[in-house]
Amino acid sequence: MPTSGDVVDLELGVPEGREPGFGHPAVLVTAQRILDADPSVVHVVPLTSTIRAFHSEIVIEPDELNGLDRASAAQCQHIRAVSPHRVSGVRGNIGVVPLAQLRETIAVILDLP
After folding, report:
1. What whole-number distance in Å separates Cα of residue 17 and Cα of residue 21?
2. Pairwise CA distance, residues 87 & 10, whole Å
């Protein structure tokens, strides 16, 4: 059972334009109550090892809990809905504080209260 904040490996297919593609790590940001209901889609924020100074990206440092092997930027501007079948594995979990930062950034991008 996946949990919110999990760092997952995805197969995203061939990218178009600037979107992420192919095999890619991402953070699962779907609310836990939705994940518990076995959804047909989940929401993810792709990770990249290319660190930029974008306000829409949150840098996550590697640690023993998240399973990352290098600092990665969570690209909140690229949030997407994917089939749970695209998840090929779970590396770890980023924890509640970084997950809250991701959700706050997504709320700003989507102009949510």
Report:
1. 10
2. 5
pLDDT recorded at residue 18: 77
pLDDT in tens, the chain (113 residues): 789 999 999 987 787 887 766 788 999 999 999 999 999 999 999 999 999 989 999 999 999 999 999 999 999 999 999 999 999 999 999 999 999 999 999 999 999 98
Task: Please name which of 23, 1, 19 lies closest in space to residue 11, comparing C-alpha atoms.
Answer: 23
Q: How far apart are CA 13 and CA 48, in angstroms?
A: 16
| Domains assigned to the chain | 6-109 (2.30.30.110)
Q: Are 72 and 59 in contact (CB under 8 A)?
A: yes
DSSP string, 33-89: HHHTT--S-EEEEEEES-----TTEEEE---TTT--SS-EEEEGGG-EEE-GGGEEE
